[in-house]
Amino acid sequence: MFANQVKTALLLGALSGLFLFLGGFVGGGSGLTFAFIIALLMNFFTYFYSDKIVLKMYGAKPLDQNKFAHIYSMVRDLTQRQNIPMPKLWYLSTPMANAFATGRNPENASVAVTQGILDVLDERELRGVLAHEISHISNRDILVGTVAATLATAIGYIANMLQWSFIFGGFSGDRDRRGGGFGALIVAILMPIAASMIQLAISRSREYLADESGAKCSQDPLALASALEKLHYASAQQHLKPKSAMQATTASLFIVYPFSGKQFANLFSTHPPMAQRIARLRSMADRGE
Questions:
Q1: Local confidence band at 179 (pLDDT 50, 70, 90 cut-offs)
Q2: d(CA 166, CA 160)
Q3: Are 150 and 125 in contact (CB under 8 A)?
Q4: What is the pTM of this model?
Q5: Which of 121, 105, 130, 125 is nearest to 217 (CA)?
Q6: For the residues 180-196, what does the mean pLDDT come to?
Q7: Among 12, 101, 210, 267, which has the minimal tally of Cβ within 10 Å of its Cβ?
Q8: Residue 108 neighbours by CB distance under 10 Å
Q9: H helices of the chain, where?
Q10: Which of the four pLDDT bands, split at 50, 70 and 90, describes residue 1?
Q11: Measured in Å, how far apart are the chain's first and last C-alpha atoms?
Q12: Spatial separation of the C-alpha atoms in residues 132 and 49, rounded to whole Å
């Protein structure tokens, strides 16, 4: 668990380093400040309202406390174990077998489950999934993701400024100090790609962390491993497609990638390889953790 926390800190540091490096290319000062403020404002809105947007987008309804009393009981037990408030529980009528957590902090958190996941998993496996999602809340992964997104967005804005500067000859009088306009153009193209790769790596590290801390909270790593195996298989069989670009961008929230088709490669995926996630959980069980 500590290793994943350190990895996240190092990746956020790398994003910050890219941001400052690009700031040097545009001369720092006003351009750097402007890009960061725009990125901060965009992601500030996302941080405070993404939960409402996502829940509305998927047509979420409050989970019936009478019909699903066992789920409320499981979540109440797990939140007490992690010493956080009880989140709001939501139901999605989609056959997609999945679950996600959202909310800017433990006091304003939500956990959603789909009809598909209720059909596929038994109670022990479902408890493992809920422990994973509650760990996302206690680990403040929405906050971590927002910080990463702010830095990556700012890097994208600065890179765009560099490209426009190259087009209009903004580097012609400063060629020697900065390595020339062509060098700046290469930097402007490569840096956003690097920033996106780091941002996705942060997402994957937080999934590993939620797997580990969730398994420890539930005291049943094999239950989560079994659940992930079933959900991965169900996702492959259902051949679901995102109905909008917004749905595609929220795929990282779910415990397993929800849509059909493989992601490009490990470096460009929002989720860690499923085989590695399952192997780590089984290794935890073997060690008695």
A1: very low
A2: 10
A3: no
A4: 0.82
A5: 130
A6: 73
A7: 267
A8: 15
A9: 2-25, 29-57, 69-82, 115-120, 123-138, 141-167, 175-178, 180-218, 221-238, 245-249, 274-286
A10: low
A11: 12
A12: 22
Q: Which of 46, 99, 102, 103 is nearest to 74 (CA)?
A: 99
Q: What are phi and psi of 90, to 5 degrees?
A: -130, 155
Beta strand 61-62 pairing with 88-92: antiparallel
Q: Is 63 a residue whose pLDDT tops 50?
A: yes
Rounded Cα–Cα distance for residues 245 and 242 (Å): 7
Residues counted in the chain: 289
- Please list the residues that pair with 113 across neighbouring strands: 91, 99
Task: Pinpoint the alpha helices (H) of 180-273.
Answer: 180-218, 221-238, 245-249
CB-based burial, 157-190: b 16+ in 10 Å, e otherwise: bbbebbbebbeeeebeeeeeebeebeebbebbee
Res 273: pLDDT? 93
Q: Phi and psi for 92 in degrees, rounded to 5?
A: -115, 125
Q: How far is residue 239's CA from residue 258's CA, in Å, rounded to a whole number?
A: 9
Which SS3 state, helix, strand or coil, does residue 67 take?
A: coil
More confident residue, 229 or 146: 229
Taking the C-alpha atoms of residue 210 and residue 225, their distance in angstroms, rounded to an integer, is 13
- How many independent structural domains does the chain possess? 1
Residue 175 pLDDT exceeds 50: no
- Residues annotated as catalytic (active site), given as ranges: 133
The three-point CA angle 135-138-140 to 5° equals 105
d(CA 102, CA 159): 30
Torsion sign over Cα 214, 220, 221, 223: negative
**What pLDDT is attached to residue 182?**
65
Instruction: Report the half-sphere exposure of 37 (CA within 13 A, side-chain side).
Output: 6
- Give the β-pairing of 88-92 and 110-114: parallel
Written as six digits, the tokens of 58 are: 């998927």
Beta bridge partners of 61: 91
